Model the fold of this input.
Amino acid sequence: MHKLIRRLLGAVPVLLAISFLIFLLMHIAPGDPVTLMLGDNATPEDVARLRGELGLDKPILVQYWDFLSRAVRGDFGRSLKFGEPVLKLVGERLPATLELAFASLFVAITIAVPVGVYSAIRHNSLVDHAGMSVALIGVSLPNFWLGIMLIYFFGGQLNWLPVAGRIEYGIEIKSITGLYLIDSLLTGNFEALVSVAKHLLMPAFTLGAALAAIVTRISRSSVLEVMRQDYVTTARAKGLSERAVIWRHIVRNALITIVTILGLQLGALLSGSVVTETVFSFPGIGDLLIQSISARDYKLTQILILMFAVTYFVVNLLVDFLYSWIDPRIKF
Amino acid sequence: MIRKLNRREFLQSGVSAAALATWPSWLRQAHAASRDRVTIFHSSVADSNHPYNHSSSPIYGNWQHVIEPLIEYDVGRKDFIGVLAESWQFQGNKWVFKLRKGVKFHNGASFTSKDVVFSVEKMRDEKGGSLQAPNFKDVSEIQTPDDHTVVFVTKQPNAVFLDRLDNRFMLSKEAGDKLGDKIFDNLVGTGPYKFVSYQRGGNMVFTRNDDYWGGRAAIKEVIFKKVTEDAARLAGLESGQADFINNVPDHEVARLKKHPRLRIDQVEGLRMFFLAINFAFKPWDNKLVRQAANYSVDAPAIIRNIFDGIGYPCNGPVGANVLGVDPNHKRYPYNPQKAKELLAQAGYPNGCDIQLYYSGGRYPKDREVCQVVAAQMVKGGFRVELISQEWALFWDKQGVNGGRLPFYYIGRGSLTDADTLYDQYFRTGTTKRTNYSNAEFDKLIDEQQRTPDTKKRVRILQQAGKYIMDEALFIPLYNLADIYGVTKNLQWKKRADEKVKAWDMKV
Done:
């Protein structure tokens, strides 16, 4: 337990440094939020007055100190663009992005790991070649293009799936975790479950496709590598069934590499969500981040990027835990 | 020969057949078009539940379902019409409004002059998140002699105050007193629809106000859904998930026109596109160079070749729907030879170097437009360097608003009154966007801003327009079409101001 606390404490200076860096970069970057907010009709006097009202005319370090001293009290300020507390905005949107990320991970893992393992075991077979070719295509497709193609066929032409949003209007869902799939399951709301699943299918596949392709290739090469180890030959020699050899000796040892890649790729998944959410009008933080950066909304951008950093940190912590679960020889 | 199936194969094929037969039907989305509900996929829906936290025409259109303005600009008539105000008078430095009687808010309270004062105070509250305060900066006092009269006292006579009052919506003071800070969570207005729900980045839903003072709307419920991706809006319309979409890409127009269930509606938009010239930079201080530039750019060709002919070239300094337009104005004809001659007269016999700035991705096909403009200007004797900047940088004080860009491609939205463009771009000191200064021109602008008689004002604006064209102060290009995709059974009143009004619709 104290090791966990040590890891968490170690994250504090990293997050502080990140927050300062974002603050500095956002303020150095050209573009003024007030000029953007006020639009065509604003005169220089209007801009100057509102900058003063919002405290944007103070020196950067003073503004950063204001931010920090409020942040420790849990007040992250108001969004310049939306005029609402940034925590409220993030709270509204974060569950959607988490749900999308988990769904994409699920898509990636359920497709990629079995295909990768099977391709390695049936090395150089037709399935192996087909699997690797599809993976190559998956990795090469830009996700915005894949998203638009899915929208065109499954939304526009076949009308099987909704082209935008998270749930159909009129279906009420009782929020418990904020993750609609989980909430609809917990409350036994089948109508909501179907609607949420239909809304999630295309974005999750779009976001998960590239990850699935990478994980397929990594799983295959990792399993191939393990298969050449002496202990696998020994396991076979002592008469273990092929199934036991594969699952207990090969896959389990190959998982270390796969889990490492999944942890590292989560960053790509989060940055990919920015594009995917925009294409599908999916109300998550990726879409919010695009809007906040375009509007030079310092406070909102700051907290959103920090959220990404925290998520990355938590996932890598989980990956470390998983290592010691997969291979008890590894000490956390 | 038919092979017998074993039990497992039989079950497998049975399940597959059932799945194939039922999958599409239970997956398929319901078609929505009916008198009960219209679903609109729009690229721009309110980003917040604060009705004063924006300055964008489509979003004004969202809020106007629930809350209404005193007056509204009617593009067809080129004049203002009363909504919550019945009549108004310009008296020196006063604007006197007589309010419509018998109007009720959704909570049953009567609409009075106190609601106007309350709403304007909310609009002036920048700390509370309003972005509409600059419209009232000239107002020194608001008087309410009785429940149905409001007097706006301005620091000096201001004939264009009506333009500032357009899209300024009225809230219920009673609801405000009761709800305090929560007033925007459950908006109470006088509009043809009542507020139902708002989800940021999701749906904005209104239901019909059966007691509306202007008569009951035909459509019972309206859903605005923010869908920014063009392909998704189109797919939504084609599949029937949406009944109405905006911003149909022009290359899709011909295809959708052949669709058995859909219709394309297009209208000349109020966003005018032009090439702005900054007089602080050489060679733009030279009138002959500016005229040469005007002769070099062929706006009709840009519309024909880039926008598939869907656009309206400006024949003068403003588009045809703008108050102050002069039908006698003519744009500079495309004549690259004449441009070269003018450049030679100006002292540039071997052509001159210029930079053209734009913000790639901000406006429809802006990259293509600027590339064609550059190519056309090269034929007219200019050597053009194209520079694209991100919008935040382009629009910033280091860009357009700091007077730092010598020559740039820009659009001006919701342009209903020529004064707006002339004042912002050419009057001394209003902005730094062109750094133009001329006492004679300023006098015209000041004079029309003090003139209460609209006909007289228009004549002065036309005079100012002629001055702009003669001096070639900029290069007017075109207004593009606002293109909507609509299901055939849905009728609506097309509007040039980008507002989509469900109470103008019927199935």
